[in-house]
Amino acid sequence: MYYIGIDVGGMSIKGGLVTQNGEIVARYTVETRRYSEEYGIADDIRKVIDGVLAAGNVTIADIVGIGIGQPGSVDSERGIIRYSNNIPLERVPVVAQLKKFFDVPIYINNDANCAALGEYVFGAGKGYRDIVFVTLGTGVGSGIIIGGKLFEGRECAGAEAGHMVIIAGGEKCNCGRRGCWEAYASVSALIRQTKAAMEKDPSSLMHEEAAAEGKVSGKTAFLAAKRGDKTARQVVDTYIDYVGEGLVNLADIFRPDVILLGGAISKEGERLTVPLQKKMDAEAFGAKFNPRVAVKIASLRNDAGILGAAALVCSTSD
Ligand SMILES: [Zn+2]
Would you call 40 helix, strand, or coil by DSSP? Predict the structure, then answer.
């Protein structure tokens, strides 16, 4: 028996046929497009499911269930996409639409929640009871698992740690509030911090790195810092400290076994985890006496989306 995991993204909708051990044995992808009443996102997801079944040479009778990981706000109980910014969608009852074609359990959840579950079932979160997953990407997403269960809050609208304020009256966030963690710890925030430091220091190696890549990116400061550039090191250290403020807050609220970092910035590996662990060990409440909260990099990487969506099936059905 297999799971199907569907990873909906702004560029593509990827599907995978997943074994019970978390191996992806067949794949199918379509490009994301603009959806309308006539051709909705469910039509494309249906295409991906059919493509995955054909690629794996199996039928729907071989499938335990289908999981969908969707960016934006999702009502997982009712199977509805409430809204999504980067793929303009509003109130789409996607699970009901797909149920007409596939007679298996179908689940949908927010992509960060899926990623947390994926790590818990198949990845670096395996064997732990309480985990917090944080994605440092275009935004800052979070997924919280307590006692082996996803914590979603009322009507699944909770677990948005990216919008806790870490600096009152600080930078404006996309959500309308000021000083949100996301406005300091996302890739977009790091780019803003990098550009500001470059402007002040024309001799910084960050200018060279940015020219080589053709733009200022989330890597610019990290690359220049590795070459010994002092200004870049300051940017990186300050950025990591912002990340750490949020992580320690989460540790103080949930005291999980582990906090896992995913998303583009997590590729920096120990350059992140070493200082973050140090900050955690020093600043988490009662750090000397309370159990330690480990800070680690998530392990599923490129397949996190598909495996996370598949994990939705195993964790919801048992
Ligand atoms: Zn916000």
Answer: coil
